[in-house]
Design brief:
Oligomer: single chain
CATH architecture: 3-Layer(aba) Sandwich
Shape: globular
Distance between the termini: 35 Å
Number of strands: 4
Number of domains: 1
Strand order of the largest sheet: 1-2
Helix content: 40-55%
CATH topology: Rossmann fold
Largest sheet: 2 strands, parallel
Structural class: mainly alpha
Number of helices: 10
Order of helices and strands: HHHHHHEHEHEHEH
Length: 237
């Protein structure tokens, strides 16, 4: 629990410092491109996010519930700018969080990950092995559906070393709409031709997979994850 709290602190610090989580906690999206239609494509290289009035135009209790300015074209554009910038940051640092964290915090993160791996029997290493096998196949991709809000989820993916196996366009947050709705969105996006396999340990994803008649591979213990790796290596899956 202590290690979990320490890594959680790093996750939220990164989300606040670099991914606008202070601005966006109440304006969460399911997918990084959900507000992109409000983006006018303006060059953001010299844009001052801290002084663009985004905060002052929000309702204090809930920034995503309408006030006179919030919800207008100008406010929505500023929201879209933040999600575009997040996308740029993720794609730049997805495999290199060291630059974002600074050396001291990065070393602390690495030590935390080593300690957690020791306590969990290298769970993360096994998971990354399976995900890498999938990513390296020509006709396969990894799609992440999480109950975590989108911005902290992106922070978590980068800090756990998963940035290389999940493209930002393939990350969905089920916080607002639930996993079944996320699965339906994914199905609409990719169509009927692909084979979908759901890998998880929760009842939510199992039931959602069942609704869409997608096979479900439970990974609640090490032998499940090891069996998944074998199935992938031997092309059974």
């Amino acid at each position: 629990m202590s290690l979990g709290l320490r890594i959680e602190e790093i996750i939220f610090n990164l989300a606040d410092a670099h991914l606008f989580f202070n601005d966006l906690e109440e304006c969460d999206q399911v997918h990084i491109d959900d507000v992109s239609s409000d983006d006018n494509g303006q060059d953001l290289s010299n844009y001052n996010f801290a002084a663009d009035g985004f905060h002052s135009s929000t309702n204090v209790n809930n920034p995503c519930i309408s006030s006179t300015v919030r919800g207008g074209v100008d406010w929505m554009r500023k929201l879209a700018f933040r999600y575009r910038r997040i996308k740029e940051i993720y794609n730049t640092y997805r495999t290199n969080p060291q630059t974002l964290l600074g050396q001291q915090k990065y070393e602390e993160l690495l030590q935390l990950r080593v300690d957690i791996e020791g306590l969990t029997g290298s769970w993360l290493t096994l998971a990354i092995k399976a995900l890498n096998i999938i990513k390296q196949r020509k006709n396969c991709i990894n799609v992440l559906v999480t109950t975590c809000q989108l911005v902290p989820a992106l922070s978590k993916v980068v800090l756990y070393g998963l940035g290389g196996v999940f493209d930002i366009e393939n990350i969905y947050s089920a916080t607002k709409i639930g996993k079944e709705s996320c699965f339906e969105r994914i199905h609409t996006r990719f169509g009927r031709k692909p084979t979908y396999v759901v890998v998880g340990d929760g009842r939510d994803e199992e039931l959602a997979a069942k609704q869409l008649a997608w096979p479900f591979w439970r990974v609640s213990e090490h032998q499940n994850l090891t069996a998944l790796i074998h199935a992938l290596e031997w092309q059974f899956l």
